[in-house]
Amino acid sequence: MRIQHLDKNIKMNLLEDLLKRSPNNYGKYEQGVAEILDHVRSEKDAAVFTYTEKFDGAKIDASNIKVTEEEIKEAYELVGEELTGIIRKALFNIRDYHERQRQNSWFESKPNGTMLGQKVTPLQRVGVYVPGGKAAYPSSVLMNIAPAKAAGVDEIVMVTPPGKDGKVTPTTLVAAHEAGADVVYKVGGAQAIAALAYGTESIPKVDKIVGPGNIYVALAKRAVYGHVSIDAIAGPSEILVIADETANPRYVAADLLSQAEHDELASAILVTTSQKLAEKVSEEVDGFLNELSRSEIIRKSLDNYGYILVADTMEEVIDIANEIASEHLEIQTKNPYDIMTRIRNAGAIFIGEYSSEPLGDYFAGPNHVLPTNGTAKFFSPLSVDDFIKKSSIIAYSQEALGAIHTDIEKFAEAEHLTAHANSIKVRFEKK
Amino acid sequence: MRIQHLDKNIKMNLLEDLLKRSPNNYGKYEQGVAEILDHVRSEKDAAVFTYTEKFDGAKIDASNIKVTEEEIKEAYELVGEELTGIIRKALFNIRDYHERQRQNSWFESKPNGTMLGQKVTPLQRVGVYVPGGKAAYPSSVLMNIAPAKAAGVDEIVMVTPPGKDGKVTPTTLVAAHEAGADVVYKVGGAQAIAALAYGTESIPKVDKIVGPGNIYVALAKRAVYGHVSIDAIAGPSEILVIADETANPRYVAADLLSQAEHDELASAILVTTSQKLAEKVSEEVDGFLNELSRSEIIRKSLDNYGYILVADTMEEVIDIANEIASEHLEIQTKNPYDIMTRIRNAGAIFIGEYSSEPLGDYFAGPNHVLPTNGTAKFFSPLSVDDFIKKSSIIAYSQEALGAIHTDIEKFAEAEHLTAHANSIKVRFEKK
């Protein structure tokens, strides 16, 4: 990996480079996606079945679009006890963490009869999109369903494209069943998003759609936003490791590679105060590259978006970490908690040399759906917050409103909203 | 107002009617907005000054784009002590409510050295858009700035278009200064949104843009979403009143009209179990219409989106209220708290006959920026939550990772992510 001295120019170039990964060349697919959405909106099931045959090569109709108990049983047999057991252990941790994110409704009251509050209500029905085939990650199924369940969502509807044989990836089904999906429909692509957003004879309309997907799925989600809610569109994966001379170069190298293997747009960055560590990590990376199965992808992603940066001070390291606002941030230094307190912007922060990033992808409990591409400056990990919404509660008594009614009337009149003022006035007019 | 018996057909028609208000005919402005965004992104201040002269007829440059202390002082004189005093009283309540929305960072730890947590960080810099001229509402300035301040945002940057004389609406300035805006720039429209999203020589780039605006502002916000965060695009205002035979028809009528006066797309709906109340409210509405200054707007909005619906049972009333998911919901019944517990979907819930909706617009404390057009099914009022973001914290010790390392390795291998598995393995390889 290239080693560079961190200076202002490098920093500006790096930040520009990373933002280039934001895919803006989507326009050419938009028309096609809009047609699918319109068609499913008007023709419902019939359109869903037509597109499933066209894009997935599978014959699906109202009689077999819903995954059966029989199929779930078969999936468990195919997945086997060992992996099912691991999925259960991971799910236990994921549930435990997300249950701690629950928020309470609250109110405060005053002796004059005022009550103000905030009511927390789970979303009623949520749709979870799960990609098919090679892009089917059971860990991702757990991470999308568990926070919805912890939030108390009434009904979780999963959609995933069938293979040509009309079957769904077995690990997806096992993960869905374990995590608590209420129903799984065999439909994918933009047609699945349309079905969830508008409803069809077979598939009920939902309030929110979450889960990763290809470019068609992403564009369809963006198009239905506002009609239903959606999660953030995921960008390419990222890791930034902060390390000093005390870090283990072999661990740092392995962790950089674990993100670089995702795809050619993934970014892996080490920022360190130690030139010696920088060199050793670079050597370890070269060593691992000869052993790893996805080394071709890794080489490309490291060539494009891999950096080892040597900074003069830890302040500069922290500063660039906050600027980049990485999806995953590892801190492998002498006093990692001290550094953590100075981090403003990161999706997930991994502290110390035994907190390798894949621990968070699979097992620790916090969500692995994280803000990418600098959006950790203003977005948060997927959480229970995404599956609840709040309503304000306002109750005033005659006494409480009486004490301030002329103020409200005057404020409304200053804004020329006389019917607003009138609605207060009528309550205090002489009878 | 028309009175109808609530049945299935009425319900379907009503829901369709309300959704029609969603403005989809925006395409024709998109190209123009995109040009402004591109131009400001590349030419920065120069483009901002050109557009301000073109659209606002005001000559603004780097020397006078920032509102001065002198101008703020002048604004206080123009606004006068009475209105300033009312603004301060309202702000006190708004602050008090929003400070209760603050969330804490938290962690949990285990004796094996595991620490998991969630770090809450305020956004660093937020932009607040405030319309100029007639659409300038000081209450809206308070409602957009107060939650950002309560969240602990470092810097609040306000933008608002100048009049031809280069001045900013005085009530806007007073409200901004009271609420705690750090700086106010005289720029409006899509050019203001572009300046906040990309930064110029005069105006710093922000992390999130909030606040209402016209169609150009709304389109510009949508276009920069992802590069920065934005609040929800506001739709036309709505009120739904749930009332039984115990309600005061004069209060109900006045409250319906207070929303109908906003604009011709506003919606005012009464759903009641009492035919008698329905008739009396209709009469009261007619009476008020002759007195109110904005009666022309009110007549149009009532003709289009005003309904009095009589239902057979309170269950049906609650059901349609949850379906409509109104921005504002008033409950004027014998046992309003009992009904409140059954409400799933509403932006703000006003309980009892002295909790008139304008109380919430100006004074009670909860935010008046609320989800519209059915989006209360999945969106929340503007709150402190909009000005914070969270980072997951993951720390495992050697002991804690050692207990599960083979599980993670197997999970990663099941997903064919061998570099993920490797990053765990290297930590337990024989040295």
Task: Describe this structure in a few short sentences.
Chains A, B: It comes from Dorea hominis. In chain A, 46% of the residues lie in helices and 16% in strands. With 431 residues, chain A is of the alpha/beta class.
- Record field, number of beta strands of chain A: 14
Q: How far apart, in Å, are the first and last alpha carbons of chain A?
A: 84 Å
CATH topology of the largest domain in chain A: Rossmann fold
Biggest interface, residues from each chain: A-B, 117 and 117 residues
Structural class of chain A: alpha/beta
For the CA atoms, what is the radius of gyration of chain A? 26 Å
**Uncertain runs of chain A:** none
| Percent helix of chain A | 40-55%
The major beta sheet of chain A can be summarized as: 6 strands, parallel
Mean pLDDT of chain A: 95
The protein's oligomeric status is homodimer
DSSP summary: helix tally of chain A: 18
* Widest sheet: strand ordering of chain A: 1-11-10-9-12-13
| Number of domains as seen in the coordinates of chain A | 3
Q: What is the CATH class of the largest domain in chain A?
A: Alpha Beta
So, the CATH homologous superfamily of the largest domain in chain A? Nitrogenase molybdenum iron protein domain
